[in-house]
Amino acid sequence: xxxxxxxxxxxxxxxxxxxxxxxxxxxxxxxxxxxxxxxxxxxxxxxxxxxxxxxxxxxxxxxxxxxxxxxxxxxxxxxxxxxxxxxxxxxxxxxxxxxxxxxxxxxxxxxxxxxxxxxxxxxxxxxxxxxxxxxxxxxxxxxxxxxxxxxxxxxxxxxxxxxxxxxxxxxxxxxxxxxxxxxxxxxxxxxxxxxxxxxxxxxxxxxxxxxxxxxxxxxxxxxxxxxxxxxxxxxxxxxxx
Length: 241
Hints:
Layout: H1 2-22, H2 28-37, H3 41-77, H4 81-102, H5 118-122, H6 131-136, H7 147-159, H8 167-172, H9 177-204, H10 213-236
Helix pairs in contact: 1-9, 1-10, 3-7, 3-9, 4-10
């Protein structure tokens, strides 16, 4: 049973990571900065990939801490661990349901040096991205700042805002040991980098209107459903021990 369950967790994790990275906050800033600075497509995709690697690296590092803590609890709790992990996952589910219900959604990245408030943008529901306005007074597009300032700003913006929606997956894979951690980390990297480069490229060739706004508005609620399912799967694993 464990292999099919790990495959289910992995497939769900890939879907969440890919759709999370497909949200405009993960690729539209790179497109807008590239256009303002007249970057080539190759350079834009390279900068996007670099920032994506930082984003994945920090998320994986946090996941490592979650996995290690989970291993320690699993060693001490024994058969009770699935119920502990399931309770935590249920808590995540309820939190995201609450975020969706209150209209808070998932708060994402904001341009360094801009003078806008994160809470204001997290609650916006416009069809068009706020990034054009937010980048207007940012050093990312300022002619007084060099390309390296823009590149480092984009890197910091994405790296220090890890994929919070993926982190609980590491807890759900604790019972698979380090194999589960490695599988999830590889899936996170492939899905995130794949989605970021794909949607950046699509925007560069003229398909920037494809922004999956419906998912962006409902991301918190969908994550709540995902973690509710994961909680059930983790508890179901106890019957194998």
